[in-house]
What we know:
Layout: H1 2-12, H2 14-18, E1 26-29, E2 39-46, E3 49-53, H3 60-72, E4 76-80, H4 86-99, E5 106-108, H5 113-122, E6 126-132, H6 138-147, E7 151-155, E8 160-164, H7 170-182, E9 192-198, H8 202-214, H9 234-245, E10 250-253, E11 257-258, E12 261-262, E13 265-268, H10 275-278, E14 285-291, H11 296-301, E15 308-312, H12 316-325, E16 330-333, E17 346-348, E18 353-358, H13 360-363, E19 365-372, H14 380-385
Helix pairs in contact: 1-3, 7-8
Amino acid sequence: MEVVDSAIEFLNDFEVYVHDKSFNEYTVKHSYSSGSEREIRITDRPFRYVAAAVPQNASLTLGITIIASALYSGSGIILRPSLQCASTGAYLSELIIKSQPPEWSVMIVNCMATDFLDACIDSDKVELIHYIGSSRYAMPVFSKAFNSGKQCLLDGNGNGVLYLDDTFPVEEAVRIITSAATRFNGETCTSVNGVLIKDTVYDKVRDALVESFRNLRVGHPLEPRVDVGPLFSEGHSMSLQESIMGTKGRILCGGNANGAFFSPAIMEDVGISESLVREGIFGPVLWIQKVNENSVWEWLRANRFPLSDTILSHDRELIQLFAGNSRAARVCVNQDPSIESMFEPWGGYPPSGSNPVSLWIEKYRQIYQLDGKLREIVMLRDAYGKGCLM
């Protein structure tokens, strides 16, 4: 219901959200000393079609965000939804049919991601490829799109790291961390995979986290008291168990596979060079590490996929220092980073992605410049702004 409610809120408030978010043109003089009438105007235009492929665990909200943003931007959209969440694609298709958008402005295509991307890259009508998925496949997608003369946005892996100092209430911190590590089974790009804990409160926080994780109920997701549902498959569950067994760290709780179910795990003393720390893991596994104020930055820099970092602290100077030292596209302060808003800007930097942080409605318009005696150029932007699909 959380996902459906978010989608309804987004669509209800979409007009308010975009009201003052239109791209602001600006002009630069060709020369500031010669008196030349030549000017350069930075403006934008829609793409003919945007082709977007989302990951296998994508929820309904991501598809709706993409479709609404593309249509508002004047671009047509071809969306490949998640095949693992088949009901999402079916529901999106039903919504599109009932909403009756302009003909051929929205297309939902259920197929393998490689087939979808290859077809869209070969199409002369698709001008922007938006790939959302594993960073492992991002560069081949970018290379193909680039060689075909198309723009490409990449959104890849995220390995969420959280720092907790001794100014933040332990009880609230434990609640936030537990939720951030297990929401959606710890399978979102903003899930918290690792927690750096100030040495002065480490023991207290560790013990409270272990108790919190042990109290989580694993089972059928439709049962009201269940906190953590099944993973994609039995193979996925077993791979998590094997991964944590293969580290040098110590398992404090959980980590047991039972069919597709997996008991949320906490580990400590995992090495800074191990894959669990550097790349994260796709599931409800959390590593924790005792740090002091000087060693925090070394652990942050060890993260290969710094998409979303989080700090829990009431020390303003430390928060500013943390944000300045983070390489993440998103820094969350004193909140659960796994709770995302459909209204929030998005982006990621290599190797988590190649997509500058911006509003979704801005991503699907192409920025370009007009150069010349602009007073002689009549209504060019209005002509482009109609977003006609040819």
